[in-house]
Amino acid sequence: MRLKIIVGVLVLIFASQAMAITKKDGNAAIHIYSRTVTEGLTISQNGNLGVGTTNTTERLNVAGGAVFSGTITANFFVGNFLPSAVTVSNTLVVQGITTLATLNGTAARFSGDLTVNGQAIVGSLTTNGTISANKLAVSGITTLATVNATDGSLSGVLSVVGQATVGSLTTNGTISTNKLAVSGIATFTTVNATDASLSGVLSVVGQATVGSLTTNGTISANSLSIANQAVVGSLTTNGTVSASILAGTNGTISSKLAVGGVFAANSPLQVNGAIATAVGNGAGATLSSSDSVFLSTTGTVILPAAAAVTGRQYTIKKTDSSAAGDVTIDPNGAETIEGALTYVLTTLDEFVVIVSNGTNWLVTGGN
Fold it and tell me: Cβ(92)–Cβ(112) under 8 Å?
């Protein structure tokens, strides 16, 4: 190393002149550079550092890419981000693709895709790209293009422009999305979606409004409004259910069900329109839950056990004019129809309406 002094300038030139350190009194900055680059490292008078640039307006200015093996703590960040963990005290802004192990921040905004291999905990989250995370916890407003997560916890509002696919999702706010797919337990205050697909349990404390709803699990909601088709495993609600098409394996509605429009039902079941029922025919049959109206030419119509179908109603009509074509209605075992062991229809177009009271069968209509 040799020392060279020029007026107003301190220059340290190292072996083979491969690197030099200069101190210029004019801007009170120290410059470290090699002979192959214009600027290597610049330290300003106030301690700001520029890497690959003379710009020292911020505490750290980097011209080019940066690789960090530890944790980064910052108030503001702009650029592509591929660290192992990020803690943000104010706002995180990323314009490119971001892949993180964990994310903790007050606010985060992404114009590209965000992938979090571990847990993401932020105050508010906005992105035009895709969110992929094992666990997503947001306490404020969340606006996403698409989201894919194993688990999600939101205390604010979740707005997804595209599709949201999560293992389980819990929120105290509102869910708004085009498509909502949850494979685990979903608990919401309110939900608004074009389509919803749930293989687990959906619990809505307030109102659920969706275009179509499919689930293999249980639906629990105070109020459920479905514009299109609803296919559910089981349904429990204390409020109103409105659906154009409702198909389910089991259904329990503890309040009122409105069918044929979105309105407040005035009875446990109110239908705004026609009711279609099953109509069967033959020469006698054994009736089941698939039957409602049965047209019999002759023979015996066997009823299910009244004790197992309390409240069930059947309409049975004779459609043969011959005298030999009597239709005999036979209850199960020792059960009766109005005290008799059988009920016989003998004339053409004779019919009877019967209902189970849980013990026997009663006649409620006929001719």
Answer: no
Paired tokens of 130: 């895709």
- Residue 44, phi then psi, degrees to nearest 5: -80, 175
> Residue 2: which residues within 8 A CB-CB, separation 6 or more?
13
Pairing of strands 240-248, 256-259: parallel
Residue 364 CB neighbour total at 10 angstroms? 11
The tens place of each residue's pLDDT in the chain, 367 residues long, gives 444 444 444 555 555 555 556 565 455 677 776 666 566 788 888 888 888 888 888 888 888 777 766 666 665 566 666 666 666 666 677 777 777 788 887 888 877 788 888 888 888 888 878 888 888 888 887 787 888 888 888 888 888 888 888 888 888 888 888 888 888 888 888 888 888 887 777 778 777 878 878 777 777 777 777 777 777 777 776 666 767 677 766 666 666 777 777 677 788 888 888 999 999 999 999 999 999 999 999 999 999 999 999 999 999 999 987 767 899 999 999 999 999 999 999 999 999 999 999 999 999 999 9
CA-to-CA distance for 54 and 77, rounded, in angstroms?
19
In this structure, are residues 213 and 230 in contact, taking their beta carbons and an 8 Å threshold? yes
38 Cβ contact list (under 8 Å, min separation 6): none
* Tokens standing for residue 245: 């098409």
The burial class, CB within 10 Å (0-12 / 13-18 / 19+), for 24 is: middle
3-state SS, residue 267: coil
In single-letter form, the type of residue at position 72 comes to I
Beta-carbon contacts of 36 under 8 Å, excluding residues fewer than 6 positions away, are: none
Sign of CA dihedral 236, 253, 224, 273: positive
Q: Which CATH architecture fits 279-366?
A: Sandwich (2.60)
Helix or strand or coil: residue 83?
coil
Closest CA to 362 of 300, 306, 284, 285: 306
CA 151 to centroid of chain Cα atoms: 11
Instruction: For residue 75, give the nearest of 60, 57, 63, 92 by alpha carbon.
Output: 92
Which tokens go with 205? 């404390």
